[in-house]
Every structure is written in structure tokens, then in C-alpha cells.
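Appendix B.2, paired examples.
Example (i):
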Amino acid sequence: MLSQKENEVIKTAALVVVAALLIFAVACGKGVSCSDTKKASDDCSGTPIPSHASATKPTAVPRNVTAQATLEIKAPLQGQTVTSPVTVEVASTHLIAAPELIVPNAAHYYVFVDKVPFTAGGMTIPMDEPGVYHFAQNTLKLDIPPGKHTIVLVLGDNSHVRVPESEAHAVAVDIIVVQPTPTQ
């Protein structure tokens, strides 16, 4: 039978091995980063590619990136017809906190409406530009005029610098905003 000290040493060693394997798996993953050397077929232009195959899933931008945190536009759905104000509902597995709280390693949401291309990873996101919104809640109401629009969701850090694609890739949906009918 092992002593309590020997059990603690074995548990610690096991945690170190698991951590090393995770680091190795991430480092040796087959994901492509936009900072990697590019081939002509790589899609890291930063331009959202609308998904016409599914009316329920947002499109990842770019498609070949292996991200550590997930980022999702839950509403509106790809291709959905909506009225203004548009409620954008989002979710992420990344730690989310308002920038004024200065939580280490936290991020907050940014929505770009009809801003393609949008701010690249590692660059400061403009705070005073029309069509750019930042928030820390899971929903945002936007007054969007009638017509076809693209909504892109990314993460920004406490200094309003865009989180790199390798940490959380951008997602996008295309929507159509219409005038409300008298019954709405």
C-alpha cells in the first residue's frame, strides 16, 4: 500500500503528463493559422464566407483554424429574415468579462455589422466607428435598417485588441431585415 505522500506524488506526476500531452496535441495539431505560410488554396482572408448549406449554423471564419475557445451566434440564424431592432444572441467558452473589470485573460464580444473585412487578430478594434459594437452580455439589441446584412462576431481583450484566430475564430451570419408588418 502506498503512503499518502506517494499518492500525492503520483497524482501530481499524472497531471504533469496530461498537461504535457495537451500542450503537445495543440502544438502538433493540424489546424492552419492565418500567420502560417500560405498556399493559394488557404482561406485566411478575414472575409466571412456565407453558409448557404445550412439555415441554422453560423460560418466559421476562416474555416481552417483550430480554435481553443468556441464562439457562436445563437440568433439570428444564418439566412433568417428579421425585423429591427435585431436581437443578437451570442455564446463563448472563453472567459467573458466587461473590459472595465480588468479580469486577466478575459475577453468581451464585438459585433461588426456590414464591416467586411473586419479588424484582424492582434489589432486594436475601433471604438468610435459606425457598425462596431462591444459588449459583455450574451445579447445585444441593434437598430439595423431594412436590407441584407452581415453580422460578424469576434472577441476583444481588455485593451480592445482582437483576440487572435488561433484562440477564438470569428463567426458570421447573413440576415435580411424587413419592415415590421402592422401585426408585429
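Example (ii):
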Amino acid sequence: MTSLASSVRLRPFTHTDIPAFTAAVNASLDTLRPWMVWAHPDYQPAEAESWIAFTQQQRIKGEAEEFAIVDERDRLLGGAGIRFAREPGQFAALGYWVRSDMQRQGVASRAVALLLAMGFARPEVKVIEILAAEENRASRAVAERCGARFIDMRYGLIVLESGPVNTAIYHVHRPESQT
């Protein structure tokens, strides 16, 4: 684990993150735009503010936990979150993104490991799902490094700007020690 990855922590987004979030998105369009439909040129502070407000509402309702990925100096490195199942038969699911200049340093893998521990701390969570576009090799590699098992490829679970794509489905099962 790199020294950066070992210093990674998750904390809830706050309104003070708006400028850093906006800057991170705009600086990372090269790696976000192929996979994140919300990322677009000239991403605005009002959009970041809306997203952060939405994450706070999700937390209050118990539907999801969205976090800023930060380092030891509280520098915003990206975002990661877990959405909890709302219906029987659904799985908790997590997602993540890391600003371009911080990629390939273990940041996403560390954030996912923290999210998995958080998710499995809830007794009702037995399986956590990770979805990634088939061609999003970086995101798929993070899932695999974190112990997720490839389950299937399904068309249309992810819709990109170009339309529906094949989606790789990964599952992480609750560790035996937590059952």
C-alpha cells in the first residue's frame, strides 16, 4: 500500500467541499467522462452543492452513505459511497471515483476497503455489489483487488452518454468472521 493509500480516510461531504469537489471534477474529466454521465465540461459549484445536499438527505433517510475521500491533510481525492438495499432481494452497492492526478496510488482500493467494512458492520448486509462498465478496466481492477468476485456480464445496467453498455457485476460476501 502506498503512503498516500495508507492515509486515505472517508468523511461525509460538507458544504465546505464544494470548491474542491468542483475543481476535482473539472480536473478529472479525462477519466470521469467516459464512465460518469454527471461529469461534464465546466462542472459548476451549484451542481456540487446539489450533490452534497442530496448525499446529506440520503444519509438522514438511511438510504446511502456518500463520502469524500480525503488524505491526512483533508485534501479531497474523490468520492465513494454505499447505497443500501431498499427491497428484499436487492444488494447494497458501492461506487467510487478518484481525481485523475491521484489515480494509480491505491486510493480507490483503500476507499473501497473502508466502505466494505462499513457496509458489513450493518447486520442486514450480506452481499455488496459493485457494477462497472465492461470497458472500465480501472474500476474493475479495483473491485478485483478488493476481493470482489466477478458474477456476470449484463447489458444495460449502466447507461453512459453513448447509451446502455455491458456491465460487469461483482459481489463481495460478508466475511465468515462476521456471520
